[in-house]
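User: structure tokens for this one?
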Amino acid sequence: MEEFQKLGELVETRWKNENYSEQVFPQIAAQALIESELPTKVDPWEIIRWVHTSPTLPEQQDVEGKFGNPPVTLFSGSRFYVDVYYWLDGTTSIHQHAFTGAFQVLLGSSIHSRYSFSEDRVINEHFSIGRLNLEEVQLLQKNDVHMILPGRQYIHSLFHLDRPSATITVRTQNTPSAAVQYDYRKPYFALNPFFRNVVLTKKLQTVGLLLGMKHKDADAMIGDLVCSSDFHTAYFVLENTFHQLKSNQMDELFGLSTSKDRFQVILDKCRSVHGEVTDLIMPVLEEQQRQFDIIKRRGTITSDEHRFFLALLLNVSSREKILELVKQRYPEQDPVETILDWIEELSHTRVLGSKEPNALGIEGFDDSYLFIIEAVLRGFLPEEIATKAKADYGEDFAQTLEQKCAEIYDALQHSPLFKNILK
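Assistant:
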């Protein structure tokens, strides 16, 4: 399309003048996007119509559509290209890039989170251990532009709020100095998602077989496997085992060993060989499970406001940052009151096909829960809540709340939705 051809030619001219330096490409790409003002000139659906009617297309960089729903290449140069990525659903992937460039929001809005990773131990070139820290969260709107830096200079996630969303990306083919494009698993692991090993793949497939058929020796065989494997392989075996056992609820119905107990035995075997580094696995798997749970809930909710709130709980681990983003999106409203309204509405919402009492997944949710959540959001410490209850609603309410407080806190701490805001 003509506007994208102009953008590509502008970037090519300016980058050539800089001798194709990778270091300056992000600034060149970002400035060209700002100057081109494509979101004001291009209808995202005209791109789709153009794909439908054009007999030829520029060389498509991702023919299979591995990244985007779909990705469309609109300019293909010898050293860089311009893509538009359409998205139907948000992804929680935290990753770095093996290329440089810039992106611009063409359609919709997104939660953009930027992280740092403090590496403590390199297991191998495809797997390292450290601490993933959330540095910044922003709400991106149409026209917003961000530079893409290579490697760990730019670890981020981009969760698309609207369905659909679309982004324009100007990017190099690759940056040799940042060849490995790591994904990150909160809160401890960095993994190369493109690592492929035939032996590892077959071992994971056999784990699926043993658990899927409920082989009588499955747990013992998997335990032996993690003990005889390197830590990288052991992690993937444990990850597969955890999620497959988690999805099997029949054991508990028939009074058999719970999935949690079975997994703990296998994890203990891993610890006997690999030591204390094994203790980092469970927090990673629990965070994955928390994300799966919220994504599933969000998929059943139709209200844009409720979907926005669940997206915040999914992606943002700081209650202060959650409040900031609610205020940014709804500047005329008190963010705490807005969140409380959403929570109360969700507490009265039933999910079609679910046996849970409400969309929050909390039995007996009432005003006492709302009061404690409000106190937490406003920064009150647990020991200060009783005093606040007495001051706001009198002695009787304070006594009732005190009797239920421990039970409510326990329910919230075990809730995928609320456990992070209590930290």
